Amino acid sequence: MKAAPLRQGDILFVPVEKLPKGLTDVPRQAGRVVVAEGEITGHCHAIDAPGATFKATDLTEVQGRFLQVEADLAKPIDAWKCRNHEDKIVWVPAYVEVKRIEAADLAVIDREEVLGVPITHDEHLPFVITPGNYEVRRQREYGQAGGISFVAD
User: Fold this and answer.
1) Would 1 be classed as within a structural domain?
2) Is 8 a residue whose pLDDT tops 80?
3) Residue 52's CB: how many other CB atoms inside 10 A?
4) pLDDT category, 111, cuts 50, 70, 90?
5) What is the pTM of this model?
6) 12, 57, 121, 130: which could join 116 in a potential S-S bond, CB 3.0 to 4.6 Å?
7) Distance between CA atoms of 39 and 119, rounded to whole angstroms?
8) How far apart are CA 25 and CA 65, in angstroms?
9) Is 1 exposed, middle or buried (0-12, 13-18, 19+ CB in 10 A)?
10) What is the domain extent for residue 66?
11) Does residue 22 lie in a domain region?
12) Considering the domain boundaries, does residue 52 fall inside one?
């Protein structure tokens, strides 16, 4: 089953068949993969699990970043199986209250064990990212002066 795109706040994980050539591993920070740091709050989109590798075409750029979740290093996670507004299935770790999941416009279908790694952020629901390759995109916005910038989190 191919993974669905997954959004956590201003970050979108888009499944891709394979990673581009010539990527560099992004170093872990305090033992975890930090996908994005909040410019305003200081909160991070982060993965503590060893089964994830963050890669980039250029370590100084926000664009051209990819996440690889290896099946042989991913762990079974007790999770809520949910349907999002796009009719796609996403998994939320089971420690999250159903009321909070439903408040995020997800419909809880069942509870099951899923293979993956959890990604957390203090202001967003944690999600389980299943094994595979993902392009990591940051949300952009149009400014009043007409320029385009990344959304500040």
Assistant:
1) no
2) yes
3) 25
4) very high
5) 0.82
6) 130
7) 18
8) 10
9) exposed
10) 6-150
11) yes
12) yes
